[in-house]
From TrEMBL:
Organism in which the protein naturally occurs: Halovenus salina
Pfam families: Cohesin (PF00963)
SUPFAM superfamilies xref list: Carbohydrate-binding domain
UniProt entry keywords in alphabetical sequence: Membrane, Transmembrane, Transmembrane helix
Protein's recorded name: Cohesin domain-containing protein
Entry superkingdom: Archaea
Keyword Transmembrane helix: yes
Domain Cohesin, chain residue ranges per copy: 40-153
Amino acid sequence: MDRSTVPLVVVGCLFALAVTGAAVGSDQPTIVYPEHEQQTVAPGETVDVRVFVESDGGYGDIGLTNLTLGVSYEREILSVTDIETASYLEQGPETEVYDETSIDDESGTAVAHQWRDPPRNGSTGIAQFATVTLEVAENAPETNTTLSFVDSRAELAGDYEVFVYEHNATLRIENNGDTAGAVATEESPADSGPPVIAVGVVGVATVGGLALFVGRRYRS
């Protein structure tokens, strides 16, 4: 290959990578998180955990059309008595919203699934997706136990699956029955979402600088 064409080839490859990265960065990840990251409960108590979803959608202003929330818990300490979907996918252009839920207490798992049909561009924003109702065992010891959100899935309009970041809920069991309030222990996921689009922009700028450097190097 002629030395004069090398910079053009390198620049073309780098630019293609940058554009690909920027396009991927335009499809924002979905965040699943509890209303309170930590709650204090007592043995024998029934508690509701409200689960929220945050999504800015994807490239072309499309939103989520299909959501699945997986729940896992210590069945020796907790028992899920109910799981209900909320109104997240009712946002956006009007359409029919369907849901199905299941509980398998023997394996310590539960699932909430909701979808739009027809999709009609999907839903974005922050809203409640589900409520998980739990019973704490009467003989539960004083300990911390985790309500884990696992195997959750999210799809944009067009059946394009996006990453899901899951933030678990911690239940602090205390025998004195002091459940005065649920306390969020960390920064809200809504305020700390990953700056994916910014990364794409920085990537394009970096590639531009590298391209100039390579061009000058081969001309010298």
